[in-house]
Amino acid sequence: MKLKTLTTAILLATLPATGVFAAALDRSGQSISSFLQPNNYFEAGISILDPTVEGREAGTSETRRHISDMGDDYYFPSAAIKLQLTDHVSFGLLYDQPFGADAAYEGKNVFVSDPTNTILPGATLAGIRQSTIDKSFGALTAEQRVGALLKAQGVDLASPAGQAKFVQTLTAYNGSASTKTQIDTLVKQGVESQVDAGLKAVNSTLGKGNTKVEVDTQNISMIFGYQPTKNFNFYGGGVYQTVKGNVSLRGQAYSLYNGYDASIKETGGTGWLAGAAYQIPEIALKAAVTYRSEIDHDVEINESMPTLPALSLLGPAGAAAAANIAASSGKTRITTPQSVNLDLQSGIMADTVAFANIRWVNWKDFSIQPYKFGKVSEAIGGLVGRPNGFDLVKYSDDQWSATAGVGRKLNEQWAGNVSVGWDSGAGNPVTTLGPTEGFWNVGLGVQYSPTPSTFIAGGVKYFWLGDAKAQTGAQADGSEYVAEFTGNTAIAYGLKMGYRF
Known about the structure:
This protein has 501 residues and is of the alpha+beta class. The protein contains seven helices and 25 strands. It has helices at residues 5-11, 122-138, 142-152, 160-175, 177-203, 316-327, 371-380; strands spanning 41-52, 55-57, 66-67, 74-84, 89-96, 100-104, 212-226, 232-248, 261-280, 285-292, 295-299, 301-304, 332-336, 339-349, 352-361, 367-368, 393-394, 399-409, 414-423, 430-431, 439-451, 454-465, 468-471, 483-485, 489-500. A 14-stranded antiparallel beta barrel has the order 1-4-5-7-8-9-10-14-15-18-19-21-22-25. Strands 3-2-24-23-20 form a five-stranded mixed beta sheet, with no helix packed on it. A two-stranded antiparallel sheet has the order 11-13. Helix 2 (122-138) crosses helix 5 (177-203) and helix 3 packs across helix 4.
């Protein structure tokens, strides 16, 4: 069984929507296949995803309302050029957008602000309210309680008549249990009114609108390959990556962070990749393994948190923390994860190729903790069982994914393939900013080649998204959650054009 090199290349170019939807922030799948094409090669493509991600309030949420579709549509382009400089040396430039997120909550749920939202969960806030009242009232002396009562009644304590009234009332307070109880009750009601007014003012600082997130990255990989023989290819190179994004947290689910905004200024970082491939062109056999390093980004995040003064509810230490956080600044390190791709293919009969891809991404060690977000989390961590603070986004598991399929050349101009895919997800419960847990998918691709050196390919994939429990950053590493997302799906489309020269 022999397959022409051009034929096998055509068969495996028929489904451009390869990654599109994956665990955590994974998008493109970071394929290296374009660099492994024979001779000189150029391609450009675009992938589009249309997800439906709906759920219901659950877990620690006090209500059980429906959550409408929060998964925004998105698209991302890709491009690659590969040059065979000599018989033994090749060079390539690959562009893709490997990681990203697009989501926005709508309707009436714990991820959208409304007038009933409170700065902290109801039970927690009730405890703080009662503690504040008891401490404030208990700290008042008899003279202060009597003075507070008379001021509330409009008595001018600076006047002789007011001073006489003060002495008379204080004597009665100290000499009569019933008078003391009566005055204490009235004064405590006054303290309660003051505390409630303060809480109302604090709750008025909560955000308006809906929770939403947008994260975009871009990659340019510059790769050199060395082919000592026709069977082996060793390659490596540098990677330049940019990251930018915006996050807005709204609704009761985020309590003190209801109103938090973060804008990540576009920042670049560098990494590297390395890999090796083995092939037997006569039987369309090819195996390649590629490692990509993690990439560090020290980013400036513009953070806004109008509820910061509410830390004073925690007492003098909280008020001091609020002042220090407001006056401080610092950069945030975001490290995109390392990954390994294993690509396999083999001819199985005339004009037919079987292929598979296995991908691992180290999401377990990934987290994002913006500077001021982290400082606030440390200040309130004791209230939620996280004394060392918590992250905005964190994943508990590494991602594993696999795709397998068969491609077939139908005639000199048409080819197609079918595939199935699976993704493990990156842990469950998972962040509220991306509440799905892996997937299964099926794909179909078709390619038209008007000439032997050019082609246009299109593909479609249908995804069954895994059910997930969604938790806020304060709940990460625990079993608590605020919503459940079940029975969701997505559909992806891809278009690619290529030229061999």
